[in-house]
Structures
1.
Amino acid sequence: MAKGVIHHIELYVSNLKRSLDFWGWFLEELGYSSFQKWEGGQSWKMGDTYIVFVQVEERFLDIPYHRCRVGLNHLAFYAESREHVDDMTEKLNHKGVNLLYTEQHPFAGGDDYYAVYFEDPDRIKVELVAP
């Protein structure tokens, strides 16, 4: 394995079912496959990298996630093309997902940066960017 390649990312979520519904279709659209499943979590894998979602313990639900606090700000994934970004934007809209920076879409990251930005159920920012 190449040094420095991400092995996995693990996210604790406030409502596992809601997060799995959200992330499952999105990751599968990007080519990830269901990898592991257990009562308190599930993962999806592509190549040697996998993403894990775990139900947070109730005792830690008192402080909700906010991307401007210390910790994860967002996850960014490559799309196949600008057309793929457009297709996914339409699917996200159809699913009622909260899109971000809509007034600047698809160039919210700059004139040559073609992407869609949105939030998962816990308001974690997700980005899908064309190469």
2.
Amino acid sequence: MMFQFERTRGAWILGVATAAVLSLASTSLLAQQYPNRSVRLVVTFPPGGFTDTLGRVVAGQLAKIWNQNVIVDNRPGASGMIGADFAAKSAPDGYTILIGTNTTNVSNHMIYPKVPYGRDAFAPVLLLASISNILVVSNSIPPSVNSIAELVAYAKTRPGKITYATPGHGLSGHLGMVLFSDEAGIDLVHVPFRGGALQDQALIAGEVNLSLVGLQTAVAGVKSGKLRPLANAGSRRLEQFPDLPTFAEAGYRNVEAGAWFGLMVPAGTPQEIIDKIHRDAAVVLNSPEFKERMTLFGATTLGGTPEDFTALIRRDRERWESVIKRHGIRAD
């Protein structure tokens, strides 16, 4: 009986070991073959904004490297939650990749009572870029307002009447304006739109008074005479606006609100595939085309490891959670 038990136990151990080896071999083969069909790159905002442009540059470059179609799939709505939820529920096989942002993967979980995907629904792959926001005013604000100090003075005489546009609740532009209005002691009205393109249209048309926008919108608006820049919400001055002070230089040291963008895949995606996407996307980041397009947007190319990306998400959650709780920022 003992002999039979040992034989059975030995066979079980051998079977488990064999299954493990076969599983590893299968995963390794899967990674070697990846991708052998079209890949979907989910962009959670409408066409025309920075996220969409970033997605199309990355998709085009990866398609060349992989010799496969990389299809940009715009799924806007609910501050990026519609697209992020779709990606989170996709098969964890590397054929659906999300361009995650500090909105979809940080602030949404703090301001919405119910988010359809969990905080750990994605595996970070590679940070792509970050952008600074610029505070601009439309021509609906008198031409005498040409600095942060003058804007604050103007707003204090009109509590609850000055409007600011954002691409949605909880985005960096929204949180940055909350920080600014709080530190300046002014009462501003938030007007959220469904994406940056709609926000920019309303701003340039003068339907809203001001906004934190990306560099490309600011440059185009200034050239057209429709917008006036007052401050940069980044940590340093921008080459395109060397005379434009940061909020810190203007006396508001806590107002720093940029946005980051990175590739993510559904949790459970094999590590070998994550490594493959990371290696090839890193090649894209170093390409002249990518760097040129990022320069046009005033964006900073990032990179790093998946662990670096995970650490950034953790730091952002700690930073913004206190701000959101303190100001009671909620969205329905």
3.
Amino acid sequence: MSTPVIKISNLVKRYHELLALDHFNLEIKEGEVFGLLGPNGSGKTTTMNCILALLTYDKGSIEVFGKEMRPDSYELKRQIGVVMQNVAVFEELTVYENIDYFCGLYIQDKALRKQYVEEAMEFVGLQEFKNFFPRKLSGGLLRRLNIACGIAHKPRLIFLDEPTVAVDPQSRNKILEGIEELNRQGATIVYTSHYMEEVEQICTRIAIMDKGKNLAIGTKEELKQMIKKSEEIRIEMVDIPQEYLADIRNLKHVYEVRFENHNLHVLCSGGKHNLLRVLDYLQEKELSFGRVYSELPTLNDVFLEITGKELRD
């Protein structure tokens, strides 16, 4: 087994009476795009700040690339890129100058730095905006600049905190494609987002945390197997007698039935051919119905069942 890129053991962090991290444990492997999910106040930002040695903590240990992470671990920090949610660039510098400045914090060789800056601009699609000042950029382009500043020095480990918040669909797709390309080039990514569809699209493993604890961890398929719902059937109907709802509730693998807004909702746990059994019953009772939908559980379903909250709460 290779050494984890990040290993957090028994981490405790208190803010006076608030227990922000409660004996938190986590391992992230090399080459992963690792999604860190949690509602507001769950401890995600505290976790990242502890990993980056920006915060002290009360108990536990953090290793990055197999070495203890401390405030003065400069050799480790040179291998890390950070793109936080709030855009952090200099308004008085152009796109090129901003990327060059941040890259220069890690790369002293001028020729190599120039190469890296050019590659970073090309990577995020900002070549034609190189002489623009940040105030002249759209929100999506500004996000791309923020990413370029964080990854220009070609770090092995990259933290991306809500990198697509409040951007247009074109920029979002460009950013997500860029993250996947960074991973293909060998970077390990730690990714947080309030957009479940993004996490499902790009993350190889996901941790769900709340109240400073790691509640569940695994691939999206593994997480979906942890919850009760395996299928939701929705059928458009004008009406259905109450006694028939009880009959459907007694069908194999069905655990919840409800009728609302002219839609029959049937929730199933495990099993095959659930939709066929429900349709056979409706046809046997000569009930007319409209469109039929069968949906597998989503990552949002997992999150809601495990935490009891919506991600955007």
4.
Amino acid sequence: MSSGLTDINEYGRFDELKNTVDKYKAKSYFEKLEETSILAYKINIKVHNLLQKFIIEDGFDID
């Protein structure tokens, strides 16, 4: 987060980070949070948005 990069995906680091996410755990987390079933492609979008927000805001706590 403190590397001083202006492009969030410079050197492909953001894509590498997204690839480390356990999709089953992410699906479980977001479905529990929203109390509904979510399609796999929407999970990927939600993971992308959450990670992006986390990096831009320099971290935050998730309940």
